[in-house]
Design goal:
The structure is a homodimer of 133-residue chains.
Chain A: E1 7-10, E2 30-34, E3 50-56, E4 66-67, E5 78-79, E6 92-103, E7 106-110, E8 119-125
Chain lengths: 133, 133
């Protein structure tokens, strides 16, 4: 199962220690820069949209199964699948972002805590209620 | 970027034509059967939990960038990243399920529309509000 990058994150965040735990905890604005070959797939995305961005957390450790939630030893160790730790067998990041601006294959977004250079692997809409689909 | 399966879906659903579009549109109960080597990562998961399950949609087409949402030509073609189509460059499925039962490394779940045999690649908790993290 081979993932291909469809784009890259451009962000002022460059290391994990300086990044917020989640995008809505103070992440700076960032850009999603997509490959031209997937431009057609972006058709219809507009400023104001709420999107789910999936990334490949390329600086994560893949051999981790137990973690301290939010890095807090006082919480005790938990199974990694009950947490949002980037360290996990398949380090796929799931980020809910708001589109601020669309410039061709570049999207400016709010609420993205991924580090600069992180590969983007998928984008999905936030799913509305059954009657909105 | 190589994904490794951490488990597999066991479901009565065997083909796309017979599967609901989303898990909350009538999906039958299913099992998530995890590899023993990731058992520690499941620690703390209990009946009643709401989880996000990430799968590899192995029967999807990866060369699709425009689709008719929900297969409905009357809606016109849309960029695939504005839809939940399984056909997309990296066919990662994102499923919100409810845990009904835990039996070792097997989880019985409600609201999973993935087909029988679909590889599971990650599990994450649904994220609560900032004050619940």
């Amino acid at each position: 199962m081979d993932l291909v990058a469809i784009g890259t994150v451009e962000s002022p965040l460059t290391d994990r220690a300086g990044a917020p735990k989640q995008g809505d905890e103070g992440a700076p604005e960032a850009w999603l820069v997509f490959a031209e070959r997937v431009a057609d797939g972006l058709d219809g995305i507009a400023a104001g949209d709420e999107l789910l961005v999936l990334t490949w957390l390329d600086r994560a450790a893949r051999d981790v199964l137990k973690v301290y939630p939010r890095g807090d030893p006082a919480r005790g160790e938990h199974g990694v699948f009950t947490t949002r730790s980037p360290d996990r067998p398949n380090p796929i990041g799931l980020h809910r972002v708001r589109v601020l601006d669309v410039d061709g294959t570049r999207l400016r977004v709010a609420n993205l805590e991924a580090l600069d250079g992180t590969p983007v692997v998928d984008v999905k809409p936030v799913l509305g209620g059954i009657d909105e689909r």
